[in-house]
UniProtKB/TrEMBL annotation:
Its main location: mitochondrion. Pathway: Amino-acid degradation; L-lysine degradation via saccharopine pathway; glutaryl-CoA from L-lysine: step 6/6. Its cofactor is (R)-lipoate. NCBIfam families: sucB (TIGR01347). The lineage of its organism: Eukaryota, Metazoa, Chordata, Craniata, Vertebrata. This is Dihydrolipoyllysine-residue succinyltransferase component of 2-oxoglutarate dehydrogenase complex, mitochondrial. GO terms for biological process: tricarboxylic acid cycle. Keywords: Acyltransferase, Lipoyl, Mitochondrion, Nucleus, Transferase, Transit peptide, Tricarboxylic acid cycle. GO terms for cellular component: mitochondrial matrix; nucleus; oxoglutarate dehydrogenase complex. It comes from the Eukaryota. It is found in: Mitochondrion matrix; Nucleus.
Amino acid sequence: MLSHSRCLSRTLGRSLSALSQGKYVLAGRTASGLSAGNRVVYRNSQSRFESLSSVGVFHIRYFKTSAAHRDEVVTVNTPPFSESITEGDVRWEKAVGDSVKEDEVVCEIETDKTSLQVPSPAAGVITELLVPDGGRVEAGNPLFKLQKGAAAAASVPAAEAPAAAAAPTPAAIPVAMPAVPPVPTQAAQAKPVSAVKPSAARAEPAAVAHGARTESRVKMNRMRLRIAQRLKEAQQTCAMLTTFNEIDMSNIQEMRKLHKDAFLKRHNIKLGFMSAFVKASAHALMDQPSVNGVIDDTTKEIVYRDYVDISVAVATPKGLVVPVIRNVETMNFADIEKTINGLGEKARNNLLAVEDMDGGTFTISNGGVFGSMFGTPIINPPQSAILGMHGIFDRPVAIGGKVEIRPMMYVALTYDHRLVDGREAVTFLRKIKSVVEDPRVLLLDM
């Protein structure tokens, strides 16, 4: 009798072990012990217990595991915005039926200042988009539904299927497999926004005839709308005036040529021209505090700052952004180059946060990278001035009574004439010229 109990205990142990591993069990025992026909079989069906007391037999059939938890459908909501932002427009990078990995970007929410990426909280399949492309959302609004684990189901080894199929199915119990949504064989690649917009079936447009007069319309994104609004505000509020000068770039080019390799080896970053202009601007702003100040139109007061936060204009496909380099007055050339490089990388990857662009006491815009020779920049409100850099071109200039060819750059300072007088503006621009032409001025604090 003890032997029969041990056999029964072992059989139940095997059955429970199989259950704990997520498998399906069919076990049997007679009153007199284990028969030759008894077996443990695995099934993928519904659980069922049957007790046959008249013959002393019990069976355990078809236990269902918790696989449904892996296929749970969750709703992903709009993440919170910063304090100065209340809403944004959705731009989808995934479509219904696309497989996503954990932390893979599903959509971007474009706000007035930047774009916020929304990642997938888990691996799965997008089952529903709750906001149309371009739709407006606020923090907490539902965005999309995700079926967890559905993407991972496609990668289950096919070798496990024959083992389950080989087991016989009782005739009295129909096998009902749960419906599984179709899953792509591999994770979908990120698509441009235009590729996931729903569109009706239509014929391909015919080739445009030579000389045809066609046009197209594209909705302005929120960032472009905000840029347009701020530029018009600057024109309507500030009394803008621009003064010009030219800078001989010979010395700074020679310094860069002489020290660029050692600078790269020491700081692991290239030495450019922007660090010289940023540092020169900080030096000039501390010398001319009115250019670093601002008019508070609400209180009718002038706010003077004893720190320098310089905004650097960066062009992106979605519009102009101005990340801020903070406390420039305390930085050296290497610190400035590293900060500019980091902010530029974030801008190119669309990772700039609102905090990266808030504030700023002065702006530098470098149109020279695009080949600009001359131009008048517009003030970035609520600031009082902006420096415009342009391209470096060889020009004939008078040096010591002789004509020489020198690499020259035109620079322009646009300022708010309500606060900054012409004397301060011209003195400020000449201070920048002197520092860039001879950086040793910084060492002598001149």
